[in-house]
Design brief:
2,3-Dihydroxybiphenyl 1,2-Dioxygenase, domain 1; 4-stranded mixed beta sheet; 9 strands
């Protein structure tokens, strides 16, 4: 298998509500899509929103109970500075997003915080001084 992720799909309780959050709060643009699913082009990675029951059915599984606690993964968005992290959190707060953990110095040497989307999916927003974020947003696993 090539070392690449092509698509990330999140299960959601209400597709319209989830799309509205990603469009109006994060400023992402939904791409053309068939009914019942939404796709966002993230510059080489496709991000999808799909109702929980439909995603579970697609996997051949029963829909799990949603507890809202730790689920074993986080999505992340890396920025170029602590100031950019603080500015994004200020925007998220103004838009009513759920702040899980405000930005702060991290034990690994960076600066990060967490917010949740309307379905409770956790997003880390971080500045990692050991990585470079290029003009196109791509990460280089090396210091600037």
């Amino acid at each position: 298998m090539e070392p690449r992720v092509s698509l990330i799909t999140l299960g959601v309780a209400d597709l319209a509500r989830a799309v509205a959050f990603y469009e109006s709060v994060l400023g992402w643009k939904v791409a053309a899509h068939p009914p019942g699913v939404a796709f966002f082009d993230l510059g080489g990675l496709v991000f999808a929103l799909y109702p929980h029951a439909d995603l579970a059915h697609d996997m051949g599984l029963a829909e799990p109970a949603r507890g809202g606690g730790y689920e074993g993964f986080a999505l992340a968005h890396n920025l170029r500075s602590e100031h950019e992290v603080d500015a994004l959190f200020a925007h998220l707060q103004r838009q009513g997003a759920t702040i899980v953990k405000p930005p702060q110095k991290a034990q690994w040497g960076g600066y990060s915080g967490y917010f949740a989307d309307p379905d409770g999916h956790r997003w880390e927003v971080a500045h990692n001084p050991f990585w470079t974020v290029g003009a196109d947003g791509r990460i280089a696993l090396s210091p600037p």
